[in-house]
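[User]
If only I could read backbone structure tokens as easily as an amino acid sequence. I have put the entry right below:
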Amino acid sequence: MVGNDNALEEFHKGKLQSSKSIMYAKKTFSVLGPLYGLLSNQFVHIGPECAELRFTESYNQGDDDIDFIDSNLRAVTLLSYIVAELVFFEQVDVPKYWECIGEGEYQTSPSEETHRWQADLLGVSLEDIDANNDSTVG
């Protein structure tokens, strides 16, 4: 709902477009844009590969498929953590991404240490993490 003052009202009316929501969400966490695109293009929408009969495959360390699967699992894990931390904020002892700034209002506030943890989790350099992407939710 970040960046769109009418989003909650549109959501309750059933008029909030998910594609527009991602546009606003990726302003908060830049990793969401590419992840949403990947999931949408490769896994959500039906395509020719859905008609293929696929058997269990064996993979070996170093296979491109393993790297692809691993990087996607890491990105989805990060996304799940960020969302879960906000949803269960009051149960989190030491939040990494969010801080409460008022009644029902939260702001992203990842530390440099969190950015290093995120870069390590995603297997990217610290420079690839957008450290200046703080936003408010509420």
